[in-house]
Amino acid sequence: MTNSELLSSAWAQEWMKSCAAAAREHREELIELDRAIGDSDHGENVDRGFRAVVDKVAAEISSDDSTVADVLKLTAKTLMSTVGGASGPLLGTAFLRAAKAAGTGDIDASTTAALIEAALEGIMTRGKATEGEKTMVDAWAPAARAARDAADAAQSPAEVLRAASDAAAAGADATIPMVATKGRASYLGERSAGHKDPGAASSALFLAAAADAADTTGKGA
Ligand code: ADP
Ligand code: MG
């Protein structure tokens, strides 16, 4: 692998901008999904959270000597303090674990997969949900598997992220028929079936943002 294929702090910064743009663009759709099986705040929560992340990163991260881990750690801290609801601590823990997995330098394909695996582990530890309970785990778990498969097949970090993003989108769609057994939607029991889980939907958007950011920064932008 050539050095230009490694993902750097510039990628992580672009990822956060892309998350913020996605949260803004899909805000109403996420609100509607959460209205159906929750309390309608998910779109607001992630929009507010990632807007704050972009502000913090702009203020506190120096472009020259920062690492992927620095950006992800600041993201975690900011999401935990600005996103209300269940998703704040869950996404915060995901980014904190991902920061640890990123190590101290630029990241290769295998470390990119490790970052997604660590995020999943963090979410599962914090929320105690497993796959099939109609939560964001149903987006991150297939994403982590697809990422590892792509890395094992010697694909580039950008390809690893695209594989993860495609799997997360399919995983989010697969939550539609599920009955929720964790989180607020579980209060609805069988009536939660027939709607996409908002947290799985937003997580798929955030993984697509990661892949988009790799495409952009990988071309020397
Ligand atoms: P709240 O449910 O407190 O209003 P949000 O609306 O921001 O918080 O987030 C809801 C999303 O959080 C759900 O759609 C689901 O994906 C995720 N979620 C809730 N509880 C859990 C859990 N225990 N484990 C994993 N994800 C969860
Ligand atoms: Mg909610």
Strand content: under 5%
Structural class: mainly alpha
Number of helical segments with 4 or more residues: 9
What's the SSE pattern?
HHHHHHHHH
User: Which CATH class applies here?
Assistant: Mainly Alpha
From the N-terminal CA to the C-terminal CA, the straight-line distance is 20 Å
How many structural domains in the coordinates? 1
Q: What name does the CATH topology carry?
A: Serine Threonine Protein Phosphatase 5, Tetratricopeptide repeat
- The proportion of residues forming helix, as a percent range, comes to 55-70%
Radius of gyration: 16 Å
| CATH homologous superfamily title | DhaL domain
Number of DSSP strand runs: 0
Biggest sheet layout: none
**Uncertain runs:** none
Named once each, the bound ligands are: adenosine-5'-diphosphate, magnesium ion
Mean pLDDT: 95
CATH architecture: Alpha Horseshoe
Shape: globular
Reconstruct the topology from this structure.
Blueprint: H1 9-25, H2 27-37, H3 42-60, H4 68-82, H5 87-102, H6 109-127, H7 137-152, H8 157-173, H9 198-218
Helix pairs in contact: 1-3, 1-4, 1-9, 2-3, 2-9, 3-4, 4-5, 5-6, 6-7, 6-8, 7-8, 7-9, 8-9
The structure holds adenosine-5'-diphosphate (ADP) and magnesium ion.
